[in-house]
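Field notebook, page 192. I keep forgetting to write these up properly, so this time I am using the form the group agreed on. The chain and the ligand, 5-O-phosphono-beta-D-ribofuranosylamine, are recorded exactly as supplied. Prediction of the bound pose follows.
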Amino acid sequence: MAISTGSKVIRTAVFISGTGSNLKSLIKFSKLKISPISINLIVSNNTKSKGLKYANIFKIKKKIFTFKNKTDEKKILVELKKNKIDLICLAGFMKILSKTFIKNFKGRILNIHPSLLPKFKGLNTHERAINKKEKYSGCTVHFVNSKLDSGKIILQKKVKIKKSDTPKTLAKRILSQEHRLYPKAILKVFNL
Ligand code: GRF
């Protein structure tokens, strides 16, 4: 599973659509000595993503694409190449990437998903886990392949579901675990 880095820093793009709290935690991680990655590009499909503010705060280049058609995907690929991006981390990114796009970055796209995959792929994971009376939910970091939320699992963290949990309270507890899990998964991918 490990990707070899030699000793060079892995130039990384983070794709977001919303708040960007995982982006923030990845940026903080990237600044640590133990981190194999640097974050060189933030990509969003949404001009209103709150997370875009981190581009200004941390002085990271940002690009917005609609992801609506193949031409757009080609433009993104050009931008990634221009910035010498080696790794893509999807973090709350709400668009599905095409097979062609994924092929171009084979084995070099990671995603974080707020459930214990293979359970609850797709949307509304917390609501579904609570309705199914699951005892645990959690989060998963996995490689991205052409099937939604189905690539090889890198790491998971279990979170207990409380009787009193609502989707919102559970989402909050899981999100704080996501912030720890993503950096750990990156270290694992690079055998560190
Ligand atoms: C996270 O729960 C992530 O797992 C899911 O969307 C949420 C994004 O949160 N895919 P944030 O934008 O990183 O704060």
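OBSERVATIONS:
- DSSP finds six helices and seven strands in the chain.
- The mean pLDDT is 95.
FOLLOW-UP: compare against the apo run.
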